[in-house]
Amino acid sequence: MKIVLAQLNYHIGNFEANSDKIIDAIHKAKSKQADLIVFSELAICGYPPKDLLERKNFIEKTLKAIDLVALHCVDIAAVLGGPSINPHSKGKNLYNSAFFMCDGKVQSIHNKTLLPTYDIFDEYRYFEPNTEFNLVEYKGKKIALTICEDLWEKQPVDNNFAKEELYTVSPMEKLSQLKPDFVVNIAASPFSHNQKNIRTEILQSVSKKYQLPLIYVNQIGANTELIFDGDSMAINSKGDVACRLNYFEEDFSLIDLNEIEEQKAEEKEVDYIEKIHDALVLGLKDYFGKMGFKQATLGLSGGIDSAVTVVLAERALGKENVRVLLMPSEFSSDHSVKDAIDLANNLGIQYEIVPIQDIFKSFESNLAPIFGDLPFNIAEENIQARVRGTLIMGLSNKFGHIVLNTSNKSESAVGYGTLYGDMNGGIAVLGDVYKTDVFKLAYFMNKDEEVIPLNSIIKPPSAELRPDQKDSDSLPDYDILDEILFMYIEKNMPVSEIIEQGFAKEVVDKIIRLVNMNEYKRFQTAPVLRVSSKAFGYGRKIPLVAKH
Amino acid sequence: MKIVLAQLNYHIGNFEANSDKIIDAIHKAKSKQADLIVFSELAICGYPPKDLLERKNFIEKTLKAIDLVALHCVDIAAVLGGPSINPHSKGKNLYNSAFFMCDGKVQSIHNKTLLPTYDIFDEYRYFEPNTEFNLVEYKGKKIALTICEDLWEKQPVDNNFAKEELYTVSPMEKLSQLKPDFVVNIAASPFSHNQKNIRTEILQSVSKKYQLPLIYVNQIGANTELIFDGDSMAINSKGDVACRLNYFEEDFSLIDLNEIEEQKAEEKEVDYIEKIHDALVLGLKDYFGKMGFKQATLGLSGGIDSAVTVVLAERALGKENVRVLLMPSEFSSDHSVKDAIDLANNLGIQYEIVPIQDIFKSFESNLAPIFGDLPFNIAEENIQARVRGTLIMGLSNKFGHIVLNTSNKSESAVGYGTLYGDMNGGIAVLGDVYKTDVFKLAYFMNKDEEVIPLNSIIKPPSAELRPDQKDSDSLPDYDILDEILFMYIEKNMPVSEIIEQGFAKEVVDKIIRLVNMNEYKRFQTAPVLRVSSKAFGYGRKIPLVAKH
């Protein structure tokens, strides 16, 4: 049996574009004499559709699009992900389903049993879990259709409890009793750089345990904060990865079920920084492309965060679509301005300079009757950052550019940034990248030539909002900061256990206190392109009004 | 049997304060010869704890606090809500439980079966659903302990599907087979003005169906966006409400199970505007009190939204804790300034005036090289709003006041507000109140004397960001706008069905388009005090990058 793995990029709610793309792939697969083509989870409507699933007309459009696709399944079968209506009198209205289609219509519907409801997932909000298990019979083969989490045994939540959260049901256990010939798993599994091999290991373990070939198809592309890396694969019954599709791009691969038994893909190890880089470029590209935006703008400070962000923007959108503003304060060094100009010139992008001192003075003099002779403090620092935020938004409003937020995960974690100032923007490009990884990204970008001026990378980080300010005045070194943050945020470790790892109690206490007291800032920021297993935003729900 | 309904206000994660309060209530109940005292759902840790439930030390502190409370249950029994550890080898780590305690210890744990996972609820994210049903035997009575949603038959989600989402299990059905003498339901059920009688009706129908008395205890108080109204009650086996506790305040009521059979509470109908008023005052009070903040500030424009907000703030925090800034633009009428001053004087609060024209001109001249001779448009309007936002944040940063966001639900829906400008603030006070209800709130506030200058209420709403600007230049009248918004947001109705209600297609299309294209603005705003069945924020999850 010849099977096509169709790894495509879908746009949520864009039924026309999605079904056109799916139908094109079906015809291409037919022209290659494929017997079966497999698309990813909820492909027809895009993933994650969230509360659009509660809209009746969204579901009607979905079902119509599915019927349209089925019409094209003549002399070929397809497995397509989409929501289906729960026909039973009780339970949630919908199932998360795999539609098996051939002979021009939907032949059977197979529903997802294990509905991830943790981190960024909330599938139980919308879907009824499946309780019935059937195989598909097609061309003499029996196929076990499963959906993403159905092959997982436990929920990968880092909560440091004694017990792992094992699922109470095993769909594969049930399906294997019906003696399938191979397994299909359709997925919408987002990228996370620090879980890189788990996915492959789980799929291989299923293959080996049941001694069955496994076809895994994931989507690629970004939908708001979530970036899907693809990484679709065919695994033979020995558990070898016979074929693996490209990361971060659409791909289309024809495999022969008999032949993969003897195949083993050549695997090349890609460094996680390169993957983060590619993920962020795709994240930006899709944010702009799917929203119908063309041009980006940001404030270029001469520092490393805005430098890395602008390079990502240039790579995602093209130099003609990126325009920057340099907004030096009276505390900015000449070098900062020069570094920013050099970078803009290296990239060939348009830049303008608007010093903020005049406007800041105007704020100062107008607030003087209220502020009196109170000393310069965080209030004045933030006013400067907000002058910048207002200038860049002015550019955005006048010319229709989208502002990119340049905050990194480390500073976002400890609240080292000004709300309504430098935290402005439509999308937070580096919001899930710790500062130590921002440095690595900068070096990676410079690997062939010095795009980012070395000085922007090596000089001590500073917000330049008061004389001789340095990040290290109030924060520990970033390598220490990031380690502590990782244990608290990604690993959910209690403070006492973090201290046990060998960090000074007063440092850990201070950092954790900063993280907790700055939840309110993160609440009001742009969506963060997610590249880790625990990003700020949708997948991390901390009550604001709580005692920590 | 004498039972105390303890309707208390809990602070999430503040185990010391919560357990002190619970223990005090137990001793008070004992002094009144009560046999049993009932607290609300997850009382010990506060509701909703969200992802704090994934932290091991949060659970450890919870369990310790529960044991401490149990020690005080001598000569009295208590039902207390809290998370418990799932002892089985599979499933989520936690249950959402009712702890039955007497003789100084926890005697049994009863778990929640129906875990709401819709709108603002995401309990399935944390808890394993219960599958075992047992009664408590105490002083010769058999008690059915249930938790909130356990008594509901369907999920109240307005998704306009053909079928209601009925639950597949009925915990009361199971428990009733064990022949209980009465039912206890502990809840954390948030206030929503447009679902006012549903709660009572459901509880009465359970009482009547099983012919059992029912003790219902809800919490009061606000935790970030959610406001809990209390409304605890005792219902006799005929389905009559025998006793109802106060709305929006802590309350403590002793009932006798025999006596309630002949009792019927005198019910007074409270207008929904008064309830919204009381809810918002409580919401503000708890936001400040539980965060440890004292003072609020906001921009007073002379318009109705900031007027209603400042009155709510004065009532929640006291006049000495509210300070306002008047920030007239060159387009503000003299009358606006006078109305704002009159209001500040009526309330006896401190005000200062900072005209924004100078600062705005400074922005204009600094941006002139970039903007050239492009005409005055939304860019300049937004700069003015952002100058105001920066001034008010300057006050906040200098003096430690928390900024109140004054956007109402209508303008927030259609994006009629400036991100990083007038949308600034720590909490959105009116963000779930449609403009037509803001007017009603203003009249309600003026019922005894004219607190809000009548002119602020009756003049045509305007942002005063360009000459002679009126909201009605670009929006339909608010009564039409609000009706359309309600059908789209609260009722989830398709556009076609809204038009069928008799609205002009072009008006409906325009408004819905505005709602959809402004999801990004709402994504970045402060938490909204929720008073309706569908507020912007946590309970409404719309993907930003999607085609509508």
From TrEMBL, chains A, B:
SUPFAM superfamilies: Adenine nucleotide alpha hydrolases-like, Carbon-nitrogen hydrolase
Pathway annotation from the record: Cofactor biosynthesis; NAD(+) biosynthesis; NAD(+) from deamido-NAD(+) (L-Gln route): step 1/1
Keyword Ligase: yes
Binding site for L-glutamine: Y118, S189
A GO CC term assigned to this protein in UniProt: cytoplasm
Binding site for deamido-NAD(+): N382, E411, K521
Signal peptide: none
GO biological process: NAD+ biosynthetic process
Residue positions binding ATP: G299, L300, S301, G302, G303, I304, D305, S306, T406
Molecular-function annotations in GO: ATP binding; glutaminase activity; NAD+ synthase (glutamine-hydrolyzing) activity; NAD+ synthase activity
Taxonomy, superkingdom: Bacteria
InterPro entries assigned: C-N_Hydrolase, C-N_Hydrolase_sf, Gln-dep_NAD_synthase, NAD/GMP_synthase, NAD_synthase, Rossmann-like_a/b/a_fold
Reactions catalysed: deamido-NAD(+) + L-glutamine + ATP + H2O = L-glutamate + AMP + diphosphate + NAD(+) + H(+)
EC numbers on record: 6.3.5.1
Ranges of residues in domain CN hydrolase: 1-262
Keywords, comma-separated and alphabetical: ATP-binding, Ligase, NAD, Nucleotide-binding
NCBIfam families in alphabetical order: nadE, PRK13981.1
Protein family per UniProt: In the C-terminal section; belongs to the NAD synthetase family. Belongs to the NAD synthetase family.
Name the record gives this protein: Glutamine-dependent NAD(+) synthetase
Native source organism of the sequence: Ancylomarina euxinus
